[in-house]
Specification:
By secondary structure, the protein is α/β, with parallel strands linked by helices. It has nine helices and five strands, in the order βαβαααβαβαααβα. It has a single domain, classed as P-loop containing nucleotide triphosphate hydrolases (Rossmann fold, 3-Layer(aba) Sandwich). It starts with a strand and ends with a helix. The structure holds adenosine-5'-diphosphate.
Length: 191
């Protein structure tokens, strides 16, 4: 099993690179952002609750996203591996993920952290807002998402560095060059 966490600030390219990783390595993509947006679209109680946080750029409570993931991991015990995109986002989620995988005799193999400077992140997110109309890609919400990232999510880098799993990838430049840098890390792990 190859279980990868793709890590980085909002707009760092996690979704784009995940799509390429899935294609090459046949992994199951788990994006908590996509799962939550599907709940909002379905207008489920969970979706309504999640939207009140997401529209402000805040995190959805840990117990909610951890619950969603627990079910998903159990249901997919036959996959080649997972790519976790947008999860974990807090230390609590990181610890819970380790425990959920351990219960199934698995663990995180690698954490790939996409490093992009703030000005570039803001520019990318504003552009995405114009094109896709994603409602949280507006200047005000972007600012709170970045703050939340540095306050609550970035500490996970130290958590994974201590486990010897963190690989920082320069996340600016062409999509293919960034992907090539990730491939290098994965292929040297898998050998
Ligand atoms: P981005 O990385 O560009 O912010 P995502 O689609 O990953 O986009 O997340 C969008 C929003 O969904 C987040 O701002 C947050 O409100 C919510 N969300 C996604 N994943 C999580 C998570 N693991 N824990 C809490 N909230 C989450």
């Amino acid at each position: 099993m190859l279980n990868i966490v793709i890590f980085g600030a909002p707009g760092s390219g996690k979704g784009t690179q995940s799509a390429k990783l899935i294609e090459k390595y046949g992994l199951k993509h788990v994006s908590t952002g996509d799962l939550l947006r599907a709940e909002i679209k379905a207008n489920s109680p969970l979706g309504q609750m999640a939207e009140s946080y997401m529209s402000k750029g805040q995190l959805v409570p840990d117990e909610v996203v951890i619950g969603m993931l627990d079910e998903l991991i159990k249901k997919n015990s036959d996959v080649e591996g997972f790519i976790f995109d947008g999860f974990p986002r807090t230390l609590e989620q990181g610890k819970a993920l380790d425990e959920m995988l351990e219960k199934n005799g698995q663990s995180i193999s690698l954490v790939l952290s996409l490093e992009v400077k703030d000005e570039e992140l803001v520019e990318r997110l504003l552009k995405r807002g114009e094109i896709s109309g994603r409602s949280d890609d507006n200047r005000e919400t972007i600012e709170s998402r970045l703050k939340v990232y540095y306050d609550q999510t970035a500490p996970l880098k130290e958590f994974y560095r201590r486990q010897g799993k963190l690989h920082e990838i320069y996340g600016e430049g062409s999509i293919d060059d960034i992907f090539a840098a990730m491939e290098k890390v994965i292929d040297s792990f898998a050998q």
